[in-house]
Design goal:
The chain has a domain of about 210 residues: Beta-galactosidase, Chain A, domain 5. It has 16 helices and 20 strands. It is of the alpha+beta class. Strands 3, 4, 5, 6, 7, 14, 18 and 19 form an eight-stranded antiparallel sheet that branches. An eight-stranded antiparallel sheet has the order 10-11-12-13-20-17-16-15. The chain starts with 15 loop residues before the first helix and ends in a 20-residue tail after the last strand. Its main location: other.
Amino acid sequence: MAKQRATQGGFGASGLRVRFAVWQAARGPVAQGFTSSPEPRSIGLFAKGRQLVAGNFLFAGHLVEAPGAGLWDITPPDADFATELQGFAWLDDLAALGDASARARAQGWTQDWIARFGAGKGPGWTPDLTGRRVIRWIHHALFLLNGADNAATHAYYRVLTTQTRYLSRHWARAAPGLPRFEALTGLVYAGLSLIGMETLVAPAVAALAVEAKAEIDAWGGIATRNPEELLEVFTLLNWAAQALTEAGHTVPGDHLDAIERIAPTLRALRHADGGLARFHGGGKGAEGRLDQALASAGIRPHKALGHGNAPAMGFVRLSAGRTSIILDAAAPPGGRAGGSAHASTLAMEVTSGRRPLVVNCGSGGPFGTEWRRAGRATPSHSTLGIDGVSSSRFGAGSGDVLEERATVLTLRQQATTEGAAVHAAHDGWAQTHGLTHARDLALSSDGRHIAGADTLISLNPQGKARFERVLAATGLQGVPFSIRFHLHPDTDSTLDMGGNAVSVALKSGEIWVFRHSSRAKLSLEPSVYLERGRLKPRATKQIVLSGHAAEIETRIGWTLAKAQDTPLAIRDLDRDDTPVPL
């Protein structure tokens, strides 16, 4: 891409009110140092650090190639790109590289930010971005100050002090949830670390405990039902608790209780490959981030949420052998938590060992508005959908929130010596078509065989009457539906047995075979895999069972099983993941 140069004040540029608030925060004594040497806890990627040094700036799905340009000289392609720059998470990657060229850029770009934006200009003075930035400045303080001259060192402490006071007065302007956790964690960090800021610690710690109690429900979930966002909240709470403990402070009980509630939920949402289930706008998480967070929390597994017990944040987990299945068994979130909710009720993901098999398309947010909407629709998920109508829908004037949301009517789990099973049903099409969708899944005890059935049924007289009217409108042809199984792009799939089965080969050498027992049409069609950090969607395939519901009950049975000649144990050591996906 062409080299781009400009200032970065165009996206959500702060107004006079914010600049005045920053000016006020700058008044007063400047912290002269740290009470102790900060220890970096945020870990970046070596390969991404090399890309930054080379002038390849990949943020929010956009790549700007500008060798030799300063970070703040490039023109952000959109507001999300500018937001990622202002949050300073890229410091993690430069610190992971750690050589002289990385340090020079980290120091130079930080000093350039201070000169351009340190007085309150630009889009980076929201409380959440300020908290995110403060955490990175403190984590990598030695990296930023090693070899710096007196003027640069003073500027660093001056603006870090300003940001700390700003957070102490304005953290409550952050939206509840992850943004507020970022703001408060940054404030706790700064209060504990900077000389002279000790009086800010107690109010910030108390506020963080209040937020933890309010935002983390009794089952360790958050309102957005986004697994990756839950991991971010968990990580922030861990960082704050560790910093408090190391400084000799007591961590409030509500804070620790929230960490203990979240840990088993995250374990239930973790696939066999160590990645998170990709639902409601979340990705699988940075590699190793989940394991690191769980290890640092030091909470041993003590209850199997989501598997034979209460759902984990609305998700049910089935696991056996090398196989894990995670099913969305709750309504999409609404209200303030619903801005990124997906119409994914009863959608599932399947992973075998280190290899994802059946996936959801993911969040299309990094690829523009149209992709974002498409990624939230039911056809972008591995479940049944009535053609042209998502199971949850936007209302008139509802903006980004799904107003007509599917409700789960029944949810039953069963575990026996033969395996684990789940039955769930939702009413997403009861009002539009008089139909309820029921899904049955059973995983064998060795993890080699999945039996499933998807049913469209009218449950009551009102539903039957509505379905008959819809059926008449189709000329008795029936309501068109499709059951989709989106495949991970690293799989290799082919139609077999004269079009009656699909073979799916994984890079581990495993082969899974999909079959069905119905009058539905089996096809293998194009699909996409939407992944944050890539320049464009990845092409992949989907297994589709399509047909028409012309009766009060239409049931489609199917199986997904390892081929008989697939070994019981496979040595899968191939590390072919691209460190910096393009």
